[in-house]
Specification:
This protein has 17 helices and no strands. It is an all-alpha fold. Helix 2 packs across helix 8, helix 9 crosses helix 15 and helix 16 crosses helix 17. It is globular, with a radius of gyration of 20 Å. It starts with a helix and ends in a 12-residue tail after the last helix.
Length: 404
């Protein structure tokens, strides 16, 4: 198959390719240190409740940034929005590098979170603009694979830096590399997008009236949203404590914990390719259900882990959580409509974000009672979300509904 046809088949068109490159480079920089932030907080004097508060702030920012990120993408275009969030992320990383205090980590998070949450609607909108409906699962699969490639190599490198330079020194080195990666990406995106940054070239839409808060989501999206919230609570309760569980309870090294992230990512990437081929030929629902099921099983598998080998198996389960993510994202874009897709997707993620914003703090409270309790409750919430999705989601996607 000619390279051009293969690229089209996989959804690799110029705009998506530029996005993929940005995700790859920025992601590599961030993955050097992101997984070790909870342990860094503990080294700076943070308690379990501090870690819970930090995770809660992350969730709140994910929620609060999603909707304005969607408005920005609809107003100035997805490409301009990506430049804005890249600049904000570089600023937050600079704060991390400049000051090693708990307060600086909380302040820097306000900016660093822009890449993941404020830019999410722009990412979805760009893929929706660039690709036909029948190519979107492929496009989201390529995006997901590229986004996770840095996790194969960066966390072990970050763990090695920590072992060689100590926790503070290793984290500072990671922050420095991350800042260089993000700043370089900002310059490269500006050059690559070039003329496409002109408003008429970026499909800027006048925002319809009435204002967005009176918007509504398609019934299928509302059902999916309920299940998604429960499953993300399952993920969020133990998320910031996984590194603590591995290093302080199971007693593995930081380098071994980095290897677990690589194992998880490898399992995720391997699950994408057969899933995308099948999802374009059959229903999306079974893949969404499979994703929710693996979210449910992951905390249980971690709880049973008592050695690096056991945790490696658990992290394979964790990687399989991604098996239906491209299908879920494609369904979201399909149902977002044409009128203001950025705001629709922003509203969806804002509701989901606020619904799960307290998960890390609840997880921290449960952790103070008994660490295993955090994982037990997470598993129960995931099971509830999986059952809800299996019962309520229709077998076939319903027709799209506009945001109004």
């Amino acid at each position: 198959m000619p390279a051009a046809r293969l690229g089209t088949r996989l959804g690799i068109v110029p705009g998506v390719a530029a996005l993929a490159g940005a995700l790859l480079v920025v992601g590599f920089g961030q993955e050097l240190w992101a997984r070790y932030l909870p342990e860094y907080l503990r080294a700076l004097g943070g308690t379990a409740l501090t870690l819970g508060a930090f995770g809660t702030l992350q969730d709140l920012l994910d929620a609060a940034y999603a909707y304005p990120g969607g408005v920005l993408a609809d107003r100035v275009g997805s490409r301009r929005a990506l430049l804005v969030v890249a600049g904000a992320t570089a600023g937050g990383t600079a704060v991390y590098l400049a000051s090693g205090t708990i307060g600086a980590l909380f302040v820097g998070l306000l900016l660093v979170s822009a890449w993941r949450s404020f830019g999410l609607p722009a990412t979805f909108t760009l893929i929706g603009e660039e690709l036909a409906r029948d190519r979107r699962i492929a496009g989201f699969t390529v995006q997901a694979v590229v986004k996770r490639l840095p996790i194969l190599v960066a966390p072990p490198i970050g763990g090695l830096l920590i072992e060689r330079l100590g926790l503070p020194g290793g984290m500072k080195a990671g922050f420095a590399v991350s800042l260089i990666c993000t700043a370089g990406t900002l310059v490269a995106l500006r050059a690559v997008f070039g003329a496409r940054l002109r408003p008429e070239a970026d499909r800027v839409r006048p925002l319809p009236r009435p204002a967005a808060p009176r918007g509504r989501l398609h019934p299928t999206l509302r059902r999916l949203l309920v299940a998604d919230c429960l499953v993300r609570l399952c993920e969020g309760l133990p998320a910031v404590f996984l590194v603590v569980w591995a290093i302080e309870i199971v007693k593995i090294t930081p380098l071994e914990f980095g290897a677990l992230q690589s194992i998880l990512t490898a399992a995720a990437i391997l699950s994408y390719l057969p899933a995308v081929v099948l999802a374009e030929r059959v229903e999306k629902k079974p893949f969404v259900i499979a994703t929710f099921l693996f979210f449910t099983l992951f905390p249980l598998a971690v709880l049973l882990g008592r050695s690096f080998g056991h945790l490696a198996v658990a992290y394979v389960v964790g990687g399989l959580r991604e098996i239906g993510e491209p299908a879920r994202k494609a369904l979201l874009v399909d149902l977002a409509g044409e009128q203001a897709p950025g705001r629709t997707l922003g509203l969806y993620y804002t509701i989901r974000g606020f619904a799960v914003a307290g998960a890390a703090s609840v997880g921290g409270f449960l952790w103070t009672i008994r660490p295993a309790l955090t994982l037990f409750v997470a598993c129960a919430l995931g099971a509830a979300g999986t059952i809800w999705a299996a019962v309520t989601l229709p077998r076939e996607p319903a027709p799209r509904a506009e945001f109004a």
